[in-house]
């Protein structure tokens, strides 16, 4: 999604980052050289060249992102935009807004300045580039021009003591090659602690900076266990190296706040600590459970379109079940999360299907994507377990979608593919029609009764509890949901 750049104090002098992009097509070879300089001010001066030789080329389009993940005003960070022809003569001096596109067959280069001061909203730090103090994130997509040039060779020259971490192939000291710059993420700074977690198969690393209440070893252990659990859930590993990066917010944030994004094979988590160590450990487990899911879906499947309701809402539900299974959260905590999602759903001012909410995610549909998506995942899980007498669960559908849509396979529409997978189970058809493709008011009374769960109170303050005298069938469903997991782990369940 996005990347980060940073500026350092004047004592570090300036940072020089040289990025070389090479794009090849049937019509042209393009060699773009970009130089980023960051001095005592948090800004970058960027210049680039398209080298098309002397042959005629098709008109090239160039534009900039102004909005990403609901974060607007990115164009305001850019200034002094200069556009050159292929002979390096200035042909335009202009302010490029989000709607401005340069289209010409003689565009040869550009130069502009980007302000990399962290945006005031803490949530922006995980999605767009920034730099602060001695750490930064470079997300190429939001600071560089949008063109047809996607492949890249990137060479970075940094101040003494600084290091750069990137997940793509490294061809030399601080040199990387990218097959898709839209997915390119760099983690740069002083004192970054990188631990290699998995050496067999696709590598997995954990990079951290700053001081936390938990130890690096505890973070490594959690990352390892969750990655292994998802390997079992999905029935395999993504075929690419992956890195999890954990760092502090660059701006003030409340205790326990966190924001994350998984772009390509890079998981970026920005967080603040909780007041106590036990809380911080639980929060980190929550962050890792949710974000590492995305290394498989949507980032390792060849599905298109806005199906966020599935890879966000269903991911939250799957991560809750894993949290209970790993004894990191109680079954009561999972019920509390479901109740909170229900309360959020009932407060929505209008009714939209999950498909429509995903399309409108950054226009006011974000809460519904998460809340209603998680609730529907729970309903599907209960219905599948009830119909199969506990032999099938929603994780089976998730696994089938992952296995059936590899990156090397045919490109398919995400909504159509997932809806079809759910509809292949007769017991899920009504849920699909009511909540996923339809926009009916949410009603889970039947599913709660099947699972032996009672709702008390009124919205927006409802609570969920296990019924005091569940039937044998309800006990079976509760057990599959994880109600007795702590007893199993303690060896007290007979």
What is the average per-residue confidence, as pLDDT, rounded to a whole number? Answer: 84
**Strands, total number:** 24
User: What overall form do the CA principal axes indicate?
Assistant: globular
**Helix-strand makeup class:** alpha+beta
Keywords:
alpha+beta, Immunoglobulin-like, 13 helices, 3 domains, five-stranded mixed beta sheet, Neutral Protease, domain 2, 494 residues
Give a description of the structure.
The chain has 494 residues and is α+β, with helices and mostly antiparallel strands. Helix content is 31%, strand content 26%. It has 13 helices and 24 strands. The chain is globular, with a radius of gyration of 24 Å. The protein starts with 14 loop residues before the first strand and ends with a helix.
Gist of the model:
The chain is α+β, with helices and mostly antiparallel strands and 494 residues long. Helices cover 31% and strands 26% of the residues.
Explain the layout of strands and helices.
Blueprint: E1 15-24, E2 29-38, E3 43-49, E4 60-62, E5 78-85, E6 90-94, E7 102-104, E8 107-115, E9 130-132, E10 135-139, H1 140-143, E11 152-157, E12 162-166, E13 170-172, E14 175-178, E15 185-190, E16 193-198, E17 204-208, H2 216-234, E18 242-248, E19 258-263, E20 266-271, H3 277-293, E21 303-304, H4 308-325, H5 331-346, H6 354-359, H7 366-388, H8 394-404, E22 412-413, H9 414-423, H10 429-436, H11 445-451, E23 453-456, E24 463-466, H12 472-481, H13 485-490
Helix pairs in contact: 2-3, 3-4, 4-7, 5-7, 7-11
């Amino acid at each position: 999604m996005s990347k980060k750049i940073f500026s350092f104090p004047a004592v570090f002098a300036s940072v020089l980052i040289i990025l070389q992009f090479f794009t090849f097509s049937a019509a042209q070879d393009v060699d773009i050289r970009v130089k980023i300089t960051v001095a005592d001010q948090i800004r970058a001066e960027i210049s680039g060249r398209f080298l098309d030789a002397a042959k005629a080329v098709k008109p090239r389009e160039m534009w900039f992102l102004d909005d990403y993940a609901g974060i607007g005003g990115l164009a305001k960070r850019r200034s002094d935009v200069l556009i050159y022809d292929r002979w390096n003569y200035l042909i335009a001096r202009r302010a490029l807004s989000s709607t401005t596109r340069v289209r010409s067959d003689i565009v040869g280069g550009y130069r502009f300045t980007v302000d990399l001061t962290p945006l005031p909203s803490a949530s922006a730090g995980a999605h767009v580039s920034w730099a602060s103090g001695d750490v930064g994130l470079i997300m190429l997509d939001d600071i560089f021009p949008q063109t047809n040039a996607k492949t890249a060779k990137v060479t970075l020259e940094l101040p003494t003591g600084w290091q750069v971490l990137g997940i793509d192939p490294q061809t030399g000291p601080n040199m990387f090659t990218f097959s898709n710059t839209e997915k390119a993420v760099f983690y740069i700074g002083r004192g970054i602690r990188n631990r290699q977690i998995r050496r067999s198969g696709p590598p997995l690393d954990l990079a951290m900076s700053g001081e936390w209440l938990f130890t690096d070893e505890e973070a490594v252990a959690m990352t390892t266990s969750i990655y292994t659990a998802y390997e079992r859930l999905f029935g395999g590993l993504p075929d690419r190296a992956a890195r999890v990066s954990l760092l502090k917010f660059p701006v003030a944030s409340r205790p326990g706040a966190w924001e994350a994004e998984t772009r390509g094979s890079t998981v970026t988590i920005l967080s603040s600590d909780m007041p106590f160590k036990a809380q911080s450990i639980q929060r980190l487990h929550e962050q890792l459970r949710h974000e590492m899911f995305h290394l498989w879906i949507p980032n390792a499947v060849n599905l298109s379109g806005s199906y966020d309701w599935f890879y966000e809402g269903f991911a939250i539900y799957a991560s809750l079940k894993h949290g209970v299974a790993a004894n990191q959260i109680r079954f009561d905590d999972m019920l509390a999360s479901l109740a909170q999602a229900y309360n959020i759903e009932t407060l929505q001012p209008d009714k939209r299907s999950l498909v429509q909410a995903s399309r409108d995610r950054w226009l006011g549909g974000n809460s519904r994507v998460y809340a209603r998506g998680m609730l529907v995942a729970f309903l599907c899980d209960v219905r599948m377990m009830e119909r199969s007498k506990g032999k099938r669960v929603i994780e089976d559908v998730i696994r089938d979608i992952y296995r059936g849509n590899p990156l090397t396979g045919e490109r398919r529409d995400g909504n159509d593919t997932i809806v079809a997978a759910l509809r292949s189970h007769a017991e899920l058809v009504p849920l699909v029609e009511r909540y996923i493709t339809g926009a009916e008011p949410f009603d889970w009374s039947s599913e709660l009764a099947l699972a032996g769960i009672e709702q008390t109170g009124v919205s927006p303050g409802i609570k969920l509890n296990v019924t005091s005298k569940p039937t044998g069938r309800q006990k079976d469903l509760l057990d599959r949901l994880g109600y007795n997991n702590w007893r199993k782990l303690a060896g007290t369940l007979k």
